[in-house]
Amino acid sequence: MNTLQLCLLISSALFCIGLAGALSRTNTILVLLGIELMLNAANLNFIAFWRFNPAPLPATGVIFVIFAIAVAAAEAAVGLALVIAIYRHQQNIRLQDATRLKG
Amino acid sequence: MTLSVQHLWLIPALPLLAAAIGALTPSGGRTLAASAAIAAMVAAFVLSCCALVAALADPTANLTYNFTWFDLGTGAVRLGWLLNPLTAFMCVMVTFVGTLIFVFSLGYMHDDENFTRFFCFLSLFAAAMLGIVVSNSLLFLFVSWELVGLASYLLIGFWFQKPEAAAAAKKAFITTRIGDLGLLLGMVWLYHARGTLLFFDGGAGVLEPASLTALMVSTLSCGLAVSTAISLLIFCGAVGKSGQFPLHVWLPDAMEGPTPVSALIHAATMVAAGVFLIARIYPLMEADYHHHNLPIHALTVVAFIGAITALMGALIAVAQNDIKRVLAFSTVSQLGFMMLAIGVGSWVAAIFHLLTHAFFKALLFLGAGSVIHAAHHEQDMRKLGGLSGPMRVTFLTFAVGMMALAGVPFLFSGFWSKEAILHAAHAWDVSHIPLYFGLTAVVLTAFYMTRLVAETFFGKPRSHAAGLAHENPAVMTVPLVILAACAILLSLLAWPTPWLQHQLDPQAHTEPGGLSLMMLSIVLVALGLGAGWALYGRLLRTNASAPDPLAAALPRLHAFLAARMMFDELYAATFGRLSNGLAALADGLDRYVWGGLVNLVARLGQFGGLVNREADEDGLNAGFDAVSRKVRSVGQIYSRAQTGETHGYLRVIALGFVVLVLLVMLGGVR
Amino acid sequence: MSPDYLELLHALMPEAALVIGALVVLGFDLVVAKRDTLEERMNSSVTIGALSIVAALWHTVRAGAFGPAFGGVLNFDHLAVAARGGVLVLALLTLLLSAGTAHARHGAEYVAVILFATVGFTLMAAAQQLLLAFLALELASLSLYVLAGFDKSRPASAEAGLKYFLFGGMAAAFLLFGFSLIYGLTGSIELPQIAAQLAHQGMSPLLVVALVMVLVAFGFKASAAPFHLWAPDVYEGAPVSSAALIASASKLAGFTLFTRLLWPGFGIVAGIAPTAHVWAGWVPVVLLLSGSSLFIGNLGALAQTNVRRLLAYSAIAHAGALLLGVVVAGRAGPGPLFYYAATYGLATVGAFGVIGVVAKAGACQKITDLAGLHRRSPLLAGCLMIFILSLAGVPPLAGFFGKFAVFAAALQLGGLASPVGWLVFLAIAFSAVALYYYLVILKQALVTAPAADASRIAVPAPAAITLAAAALMLLLFGIFPSLLLGMF
User: Are B643 and A102 in contact (CB < 8 Å)?
Assistant: First the structure.
């Protein structure tokens, strides 16, 4: 197993861990964290593909990652704001309790 | 003076303009709206006459004017106008009858608060109908066709305060739309097969020989020619619009609208549209006829549907008590006659009957409207009676219409057109069953019309309202007189020489009519009239609750017919059952598959309460009600998957992803 | 190729106008208008915002289609120009409608976020590179999350925002992971290079995973089943004009972006052959999504009593037809798809606009809240009739020709006896079902008598003009489809 494959394995594992977290945690912030983990798995992919590509590439992979991190940060900001908005109405941040809209 | 084909669009455009004026007029501007509508119809009538002159200059020519409407990536969509005798006769008829109905409405709707809106809708309706007639493109025809449906929805539901009216409007719109699905599908298929929807286009149109040959030669896997399949799909649209069996259920309910609307819908326009459509695409319908290896020919289906409708409508009409419903079912029956005529290969006879029927059925509806208006909206003929004295003009004109419809010989136009149809049915070499059905319907028609006249006009008034009735003002009776004159004078189209037939289709070889068949039908008409008089005319009903002699003799049959052959109930039982099964299936899927697999997605239990949700059921009667409720309950099962739980939603993403990847992988990666 | 920043600025004038407009809105509200009433502040913000959108629209139209810009990162072809024009018009309509309907608190921020979302849409319409596509998508999505949860006073709005955010965040993670795999497989993030690389690489299991991940995000953006679950909740809970934006401009931009991604980018691995029994490729997946959307959207709508949820299910059903348009775009070009998406957007914005105006005079959640609209406001009832009939696909309104164009093109692809043909058949059959639930709305608005306590609705002038304009456009584009289709 070469390093690229190892990296991909780790990133896939990271993606699955993030997914599992997002799908199972009741705390909204932890769900958010799971999603951030998934994004970072993708970032790891970009770096690995860029670093271990046989042909020398322009730094697209790295640039992509930098932008993606910025987007993730913005996403966290918006997400936390929405979590606060929910907290103001239901006095907790349990995702299961937010089921007003349905049908 | 003639109207060239480039300017044919003016004919539908004028009523459309009137509709726009009506829409923009505030409800106070009654005179403006009504005069705009009537002026537009009169102008359209004049233009139609000019168009008729132009078309008759060379009856064999199909004058067209085509233009590109828009480009659609792979090809342009073109529209056009078509002028031939068929177009011209239809235009003249629609505008003439339409004008009279508009004038009649002046009197009939005089006290209605939404007078301007009514004339706006009427004009829109007439414009859409004229659009169907002048179109040289199936696409434009379809657009106008849908507009007719929309306008009829608005008109039938005009008295929306009546819940039945609102329900009837909805039922009419939805039922005809079911047929329209077939039409739309046939149209899209035709476009796919030929790349154009123009009827005539200098050799490239869909109704021209090259296209017909191509459509006929290619066959489907089930052995049908493509032309047969497309024809039958388009015929579905006509079945819906023209109230043919089995989609006739909307037509009697459409009686809930104001009576001029009934006249417009049942006589001149909407129901005629289906017959007109089939006559228009007759070359396509007929394309497979000489191809003997096919399992079925399109025209055969048309003939049998028409025959069944003709007989069924006449049977049901025998047992109805509401004047307008009798007329409605007689319309169903007469439309069946027209379809029968097309099916047995004589679209000319169908159009002839369509024209004469338009006049005498408009006359009958307006006459019925006159009676209803005078008798303070009493429509039950058992409670009328004795109106021949106070309502002289109405009575005489109504009698003319009745005799035309019943096919009283020689003097009345209905006789000649009916004769043409029976003659064509007799000459058909496939089967004589339609002829026998038709002959039976002839007896029944004479019978129920005699009953209608006897019960309404003879004897003594059987209710207070009928006793107070008196003749209506001239604005309502003059149209009646004009229509009655037409119902007689139109005989000249067929006698002494079959002029109309010759103009519509100069190639058609009209043999001298079989005298024996004519004698037979005269005997049958006499039989019907005599039976009707014997049962209802001789022993006049004395009070409204006296039993019906026919019901006394054949109680069960009468009850069956009075319940309109239980069609609504039948639909409730069958389609309702079907969708019940569907719902059970979906429920099973829900519980075992969806539930088991996606138990992690959603906890379903909490939403049982949704199932009993009731909403908006006031309209449709038993059949539609049941079907729609069942379909809706299927919907509720789907909407229950929407648990409101975010985790469930997120899990569906993951699950959907896995399933899709597996599907693609299992499908085989090259 | 050296990046030419002047050229970039020239190409992105519309975006610049929007961003400047948003900043001016915020600054004006902060500095100049802080003593005005909330109503006045909202109105001045909307005015400035509308002006900046008009400026952007003007730039877009004036520049026209001039091909790739900035080293191929952006591609201003006919589709891009049409879609940019389309989203700008839809955003403008939404903005004008929000003037009379949105809650006035923090009006300036609301307008500014709408403008930022619009920047995201216009960039989505032109992006031809994975990074820019991702950034544009996220800019639009993040703004929309904020808009959905903007009405802090209502728990429903916060919940809608949160659900939308979590669903969208998950979809974005899938999208980014898919992009990273594509980057690894082809070594590039530029669509032309990716296409060239795929041409001699062909299909591989990893590419399947990557494609499906991209399609998950597409399904989310398009609200296609089974990735539709957020839509009904968000449509119901979000402020009306936010829902209108999500339903219209965001859809148009999303379909443009993903059509560009799928056809020029991954067209090689489309696995065309709607007739052959080959599953490898994304076309079968899109067809699957299309079929399930038609099914779930139409049936789900039947059970609704909430008018906004009904519109959401109708959106899902329309997504099914639009996805068919995406498949068709490979052969027939994006014309039918664009026509459908744009006119659908118009009708939806209009319908939400009517709901917004009615909601201002009282609640407008249940379908029965629309009862007697023809008495309470004939203008609203008339406009609503045009919007709903267009959604139902009744000619001669634009909705019918969108359907006709897409279906006709779809049948050119494979005839009736192919999966595409069956989907066309399904879609046409479902249009009868659809008519039923649309008529339920119309019946309330046009036929039923108003509730006893219902008063006449005063329609604010900007909203009246906007609604009438949208209705007129639907009629106009229906009668002259070449106005839109002629752009390609």
Answer: yes
- Residue C27 has a CB neighbour count (10 Å cut-off) of 14
The answer to whether residues B550 and B535 touch, using CB atoms and an 8 Å cutoff, is yes
Residues of chain A neighbouring C163 (CB-CB closer than 8 A): 98, 101
Q: How many residues make up chain C in this entry?
A: 488
| C-alpha span between B652 and B657 (Å, rounded) | 8
Asked if B57 contacts B47 with a C-beta cutoff of 8 angstroms, the reply is no
- Say yes or no for a CB contact (<8 Å) between B647 and A101: no
Q: What DSSP letter does each residue of C426-463 carry, written as one string?
A: HHHHHHHHHHHHHHHHHHHHHTSPPPTT--PPPPPHHH
Give the distance from CA B33 to its chain's centroid.
27
- State both tokens at C46: 């909307």
Q: What is the nearest CA distance from B100 to chain C, expressed in angstroms?
A: 28
On whether the CB atoms of residues B279 and B218 are closer than 8 A, the answer is: no
Strands B63-72 and C74-76: unpaired
Least confident of B213-227, B269-283, C202-216: B213-227
State how far the Cα of C150 lies from the Cα of B408, in Å rounded to an integer: 76
Q: Are C266 and B654 in contact (CB under 8 A)?
A: no
Residues in chain B within 8 Å Cβ distance of A96: 645, 647
pLDDT at C415: 65
- Cα C409 to Cα B116, C328, C334, C426: the distances in Å are 42, 6, 11, 16
> Quick one: CA dihedral C448, C454, C455, C459, positive or negative?
negative
Contact A98 C159 (CB under 8 A): yes
Closest CB from C159, C172, C187 relative to A57 = C187
- Per residue in B422-447, pLDDT (tens digit) is 888 888 777 888 888 888 888 888 88
Instruction: Encode B518-536 in three state secondary structure.
Output: HHHHHHHHHHHHHHHHHHH
Residue C125's pLDDT is 92
Residues in chain A: 103
Q: What does the pLDDT read at residue C322?
A: 94
- Contacts of residue B644, defined as CB under 8 A and 6 or more positions apart, other chains included, come to A98, A99, A100, A101, A102, A103, C233
Give chain A's domains with CATH numbers. 3-97 (1.10.287.3510)
Q: What pTM value is reported for the model?
A: 0.80
For C256-287, the DSSP string reads HHHHHIIIIITGGG----SSS----SHHHHHH
Cβ within 8 Å of residue B450, ≥6 positions away: B402, B406, B528, B529, B531, B532, B533, B536, B537
- Give the rounded percent of residues in chain B with a pLDDT score beyond 70: 75
Contact (CB<8Å) B657/C216: yes
Chain-centre distance for alpha carbon C43: 25
Based on DSSP, count helices (H) and strands (E) in chain B, helices before strands.
Answer: 28, 2
Which residues neighbour B370 within 8 Å (Cβ) at sequence distance 6 or greater?
B391, B394, B472, B476, B477, B480
Interatomic CA distance for residues B151 and B23, integer angstroms: 13
- Residue B39 CA to residue B16 CA, distance in Å, equals 12
At B65, list the tokens: 């004017």
* Cis previous bond, B496, omega within 30: yes
Name residue B344's beta-bridge partners.
none
* Closest to B636 (Cα-Cα) out of B614, B618, B666: B614
Contact status of C276 with chain B (Cβ, < 8 Å): no
- Nearest partner of B234 among B191, B274, B175, judged by Cα: B274
Q: Exposure string (b/e) for B76-89, b if CB count within 10 Å is 16 or more?
A: ebbbbbbbbbbbbb
Q: Which residues pair with B66 in a beta bridge?
A: B80
Closest residue to A53, CB basis, from C152, C166, C187? C187
| ipTM (interface predicted TM) | 0.96
